[in-house]
Amino acid sequence: MADIDFLSELHKKTKRDYVARVTEYPKADAIAIAKRYDREYWDGDRKFGFGGYSYDGRWNPVAAKMARHYGLKSGDSVLDVGCGKAFLLYGFTQAVPGVSVRGLDISSYAVENAKEEVRPFLEVGDARKLPYPDKSFDLVVSLNTLHNLYIYDLFDAIREIERVGRKDKYIVVESYRSEAEKVNMMYWVLTGECFFSVKEWEWIFKQCGYTGDYSFIYFE
Hints:
This protein is an alpha/beta fold. The protein has ten helices and six strands; from the N terminus they run αααααβαβαββαβααβ. The chain has one domain (8-217): Rossmann fold. Helix 8 links the parallel strand 4 (137-143) and strand 5.
C-alpha cells in the first residue's frame, strides 16, 4: 500500500465557509436531505450537497494522471465504486482509448443523470456486495465514497474492492491530521459516518487485507 495523491489540487479549488455550514441552515435537516442522494444532493442548493454537479472536464486530468501511474492501456478494465455521475470514468475513456469502464453507485439519480457516453456501463448497487466475479478489473477505484458507510459496512466494502481487483486498487476517503481539520470536517461533511484519523484508516485497511493504494481528503 502507498499514499498517493491525485486529488488535492482539485479538492483545494472549492471555497468553504465551515461556520456558515452549521449556522445558516439546520445541519441535521441538511444531512437528512443529503443522505437521500437524490436531485437535492447532486443538483440542489449547496447546503444539501454539491450545489449542482455537471461535467466541466475537471476530472479528466485526474483520470490521465491515474492512467499513467497505473499503466492503463487499451483493453484494460476499470471499476469505479461510488461513481456518482461517472465524470472520472469518462475521463478514463478519454485518457486511454479502448479502456473498458464500469461504475456502481447507490444513487439512482446519479446513474440516470450520468455522463451520457458512459451511462450504459453504470448500475445502481451497493459497495458492500459488488456484483462482479473475483479479480474482474485491472484497476478498482473508490473516491470520496467509503467514509459514508458505517464501520461494520465499511469493512465489507473494502474487502469487496480487494476481491474484485486483479491488479491495482485506489481508495480516497476523508480524514484529518489535526484537531482543526477534524472540526472542519465535522462542520462541513453531510453524508459521512466515519470520522477517522490517518492512522485509524491505515489500521482499517490492514485489518481488511487491502493491498491497494490510498489517499485522503483534508479540510484545512
